[in-house]
Amino acid sequence: MSWEAVIGLEVHLQLATDSKIFSGAATTFGAEPNTQACAVDLAMPGMLPVLNELAVRYAVMFGLGIGAEIGTRSVFDRKNYFYPDLPKGYQISQFHHPIVGRGRFEITLEDGSTREIGITRAHLEEDAGKSLHEDFHGQSGIDLNRAGTPLLEIVTEPDLRSAEEAVAYLKALHSLVTYLGISDGNMAEGSMRCDINISLRPTGSDQLGTRAEIKNVNSFRFVERAIRHEIERQSDILEDGGKVVQETRLYDAERDETRSMRSKEVANDYRYFPEPDLLPVVLDDAWVEEIRAGLPELPVEKRQRFEQQYSLGAYDAGVLSASRPLADYFETVAGGCGDAKLAANWVQVELLGQLNRNDLGLADSPVSAEALAGLLQRIQDNSISGKIAKQVFEAMWQGEGSADEVIEARGLKQVSDSGELEAMVARVVADSPDQVAQYRAADEGKRKKLVGYFVGQVMKLSRGQANPKMVNDLLAQALDETD
Amino acid sequence: MTVHEDEIARLAELARIRIADDQVPAVTRRIGDILGMVEQLQAVDTDGIEPMTNPLDAVQCLRPDRVTEGNQRDALQAVAPAVENGLYLVPKVIE
Amino acid sequence: MHDLTVAQLIDGLRSKQFSSTELTRHYLERISRLDPQLNSYITVDESGALGAAAAADRALAGASGNLPALTGIPLAHKDIFCTRDLRTSCGSRMLDNFVPPYDATVVSRLRDAGAVTLGKTNMDEFAMGSSNESSYYGPCRNPWHPGHVPGGSSGGSAAAVAAGLAPLATGTDTGGSIRQPAALCGITGLKPTYGRVSRLGMVAFASSLDQGGPMARTAEDCALLLNAMAGHDPLDSTSAQQAVPDFSGELDQPLAGLRIGLPAEYFGDGLDATTGAQVREALSLLEQAGATLVDIQLPHTALSIPTYYILAPAEASTNLARYDGVRYGHRCEDPADLRDLYTRTREEGFGDEVKRRILVGTFALSAASYDAYYRKAQQVRRLIARDFQDAFAQVDIIAGPTTPGPAFALGAKTDDPLSMYLEDVYTLAVNLAGLPGLSAPAGRVNGLPVGLQLIGNHFQESRLLNVAHQLQQRSDWHLQTPPETEGGAP
Questions:
Q1: Nearest CA in chain C to B79
Q2: Is C355 in Cβ contact with B17 (below 8 Å)?
Q3: Partner of C148 for a Cys bridge, out of A55, B86, C142, C367, CB 3.0 to 4.6 A?
């Protein structure tokens, strides 16, 4: 039988606030254990939460970014369970009244087709601490620095059908939240963590199968592998006539497999109830509108603008708008050189090519957008040819200076002096009597082809630095004048 | 209301409180008395009444996103039962 | 000196009749002599108190102009308020070793007001109780009769003030825990409007009901203490953003035209007849002062007991989840694994009443019982609150007994939690509705004090203090003091 996967994702996104969601402790990643856990984070007796305005603002920005309903009255709830990384014995989350309601999200697949993914809700909650298992004589060590870091949990409808779609969704989500500036999106540091709900059903069915949940997957690549693996595992079970068990599974990246978690644990009863230490969050319409007015241009809008403003194709516009820094880089280059197509081509082929080959991020590029624009200006004013420009770019990448400095130092400037070029042309014409005769005998159509030989000879003589347009003009004169 | 001992065991498990075996009947009886008393609420007509969580109809104040708490680890861990290298120690957590 | 009111002590300090050090020593001497019998203090901070008194004396010796209101006045804190570097046990073995590195907002405000902390008073464990008998440190006794309870949960504060072991004390009230012991010990105690006093650093019992407040001999002294305690705290989200008046400002207002509602439900079956007669006598004094007594009804009063005994345990069951033996407090010896650490720490650290309430609260919040219990109780809570709003459309304040009778004997109700819960029948609804309530002495029954309870609408504390002060201008119940009993525990 052929099976269709039905996949929904829950993404826990760390919001890029300086302080925690309910306390004034810092959220910096990588600090010494428990140096960023204050009395509130440690649930010391008598401590109380106070909500961080920026976390609320970021949640609203996200909601507006996906065209969702904003919960003008949202409520925090306690989710009760015991775990050493959860100091209060409950997590403050939002259950019945999340801050962000239904929204939509468009993703573009590799073949250029688009799909719309439904967002069920997004709610604010606090992160837990971490348990460390090494080197404590058989005990675990608890670091509560992360406890209380603001999270936005973003839940999709079960609208995704493949690992590819899931990854496309995550990339688009990553792009959106970094555009909005509400998260650093740093997956290696756990800023974006994903729970995957996945079930299979016979292709064509509209029933939902029994799902498994895969917890805490931390990279695009792992999401893809975990889903592929889980589809295989479930289809093996179903093909053998078995039943998928509803359970929580853990993806083990080292072994590339998912395995069941804590199955013997008694089914949890989280006893959600409204958090009495916090009051309902009521959003003022004017405040929401102010946030809406201040939203940056979002990826989809930017892509559309690139298509129109710069006459770029959908693919190029998509690549260049995928991240805000890349889009900004491109626009700086395009603005600096005045030729968007040239800029688009250079950014995608030369710049991204070099970055990929050297495994660098855009922020690490040794060639700034301004510097690249300077190089492209030299192509446009005919100082150098496109071919020479690639050499110059290579030199700039190696830190040899600006385009002008490299051109100057290496003497790569295009020869545009008409006297010098006339002499070269004359010499080539003089040295090629056979070709000149052939040319002169030919008709208009053939002459256009034959002139290429003379151009090549002049370029060779000039070591590629002759201005091609001037060479063409001078050759036409020289060959035609004795006609 | 009759409460069964296995229900008390479930609640004690959720609340992470050990109840010694010989205490279970007495605790069960007491909890049963209390739950019996509160059961009189079931007779009250509350159709259409909005639950009341907080006595004042106030709304949440928001705190500006500022770091106001520095590192207080030494003072806060001075009252901790078991710490090592700045970490709180617990029996091994099994994932 | 311990016979003087706080207003008189302030005069004495400022006119140099005695120093804060002398005053503080006087109270410390009384505590060491009388408290072994009474057990009203869990912790006495002699050196801290004398240090603060010396600082107050320096301030008093200097500029006389802008001294904080309570400069040099000793007071006691209920052991539920966190005090920096001073053990804060909350009456529990769980926090027997807990020395907070921070002050509660109430504590820091009172330090800023110049008060001298004598120590921390006894209380029911985690404020759960009406008799002080659930304290890990043994029961506090009623100064009027050592065989009787002082009430609870702020029993230590009430007993200390009544016995002249502190002129002022802080208390907290979740279902009557300031008013009931104030009544049973013959002092004045005020539970302010929910949100009037910051809960930060006050160990939580039931977050939507807990409220700190002043306990003193007189309404005038309560006003002085509340002035220093009240006000918005940006670190407590539920703290009211309401202007704070001078609570002493309206004490002398005449009562002419004041309408006082007497709820039929507060004077029915269950009220001890002699207690009822004392309360009526107090009310007649208010009538003579110009107030009008109006019969009213609060029809849902009886439901406040089941409502409270769902909501308070539900909130408590999760507020007390943090006591897990990991970061502070009691931890069991040699836990075998994580589960053992949790379950044994909590078995050993909590007493029976606390465990019962945690289990009841866990039940009420469970998925299967949430709607029928927790949600239902929240709905009835609204009905109870509406009763009061209907009443305040007819009257300015509401009055009745604070308790059904005088203090009961130690041990009389410990085997029957339900009968103990009935003690709170007149006080619980006030917390459910978030209203201010005050208990003022209304004479004695068989030698034991009883109280008149005054209930106002939200943020009407000044009105309650005004009425109580006018009563105290026309009676001397609040000035009567119990006989001193020395010696060790009987």
A1: C328
A2: yes
A3: C142
**Which segments of A19-111 does DSSP mark as H helices, in order?**
53-65
Beta pairing, strands A114-126 & A150-156: antiparallel
Q: Is C365 on the interface with A (CB under 8 A)?
A: yes
Tell me how many residue pairs between chain A and chain B have CB atoms under 8 A apart: 122
Dihedral pair phi/psi, residue C488, rounded to 5°: -80, -175
Token duo for residue A383: 């100082």
Q: For C416-444, what is the mean pLDDT?
A: 95
- Please list, in sequence order, all residues whose beta carbon lies within 8 angstroms of the beta carbon of residue C313, skipping any fewer than 6 positions away: C206, C357, C358, C360, C361, C364
C367-380 residue pLDDT tens: 999 999 999 999 99
CB-CB neighbors (< 8 A) of A50 in chain C: 234-237
Cβ within 8 Å of residue A478, ≥6 positions away? A425, A426, A429
pLDDT band at C487 (very low <50, low <70, confident <90, very high): low
**Is the per-residue pLDDT at C490 higher than 80?**
no
Contact across the interface for A43 and C314, Cβ inside 8 Å: no
Out of A35, A261, A279, closest to residue B58 by CB: A279
Which tokens belong to C281? 């006598």
* Closest by CA position to C223, among listed C214, C231, C212, C210: C214
Average pLDDT of every residue of chain A = 91
Quote the Cα angle for C478-C483-C488, to 5°: 130
Q: How confident is the model at residue C489 (pLDDT cuts 50, 70, 90)?
A: very low
Q: What does DSSP say about strands A192-202 and A212-217: parallel, antiparallel, or unpaired?
A: antiparallel
Residue B26 is predicted with a pLDDT of 94
Distance between CA C370 and CA C360 in Å, rounded? 12
Given an 8 Å threshold on Cβ–Cβ distance, is B16 in contact with C417?
A: no
Rounded to an integer, the average pLDDT of B61-66 is 97
Q: What is the pLDDT of residues A317-367, one digit of tens each?
A: 988 998 889 999 999 999 999 899 999 999 999 999 999 999 998 999 999
Q: What is the 3-state secondary structure (H, E, C) of C101-129?
A: CCCCHHHHHHHHCCCEEEEEECCCHHHCC
The ipTM estimated for the assembled molecules is 0.97
SS3 assignment, position A211: coil
Q: What distances in angstroms separate CA C476 from CA A127, A439, C9, C150, one per listed residue?
A: 58, 131, 19, 21
Which active-site residues of C does the annotation give? 78, 153, 177
Q: What's the token pair of residue C456?
A: 């106002």
pLDDT at A482 over 70: no
Q: Are A342 and A380 in contact (CB under 8 A)?
A: yes
Instruction: Write down the residue that tokens 């996104």 correspond to.
Output: A13
What are the counts of helices (DSSP H) followed by strands (DSSP E) for chain C? 15, 11
Nearest CA in chain B to C315: B53
Check CB contact under 8 Å for C101 and B76: yes
- Residue B42, chain A, CB below 8 Å: the answer is no
With residue A281 as reference, give the H or E element that holds it: strand A281-282
pLDDT in tens, A457-474: 888 888 778 887 888 888
Residue A384 has pLDDT above 90, yes or no: no
pLDDT for residue C239 is more than 80: yes
The pLDDT of residue C15: 93
Structural domains in chain A, CATH included, are 3-289 (no CATH), 297-410 (no CATH), 418-481 (1.10.10.410)
What structural domains does chain C harbor?
6-256+474-479 (3.90.1300.10)
A227: tokens are 């889903």
Say whether pLDDT at A264 is over 90.
no
Identify the helix (H) or strand (E) that includes residue C356. helix C352-365
The tokens for A446 are 């053939």
Task: Find tokens 């301004």 and name the residue.
Answer: A370
**Residues A70/A63, Cβ–Cβ less than 8 Å:** yes
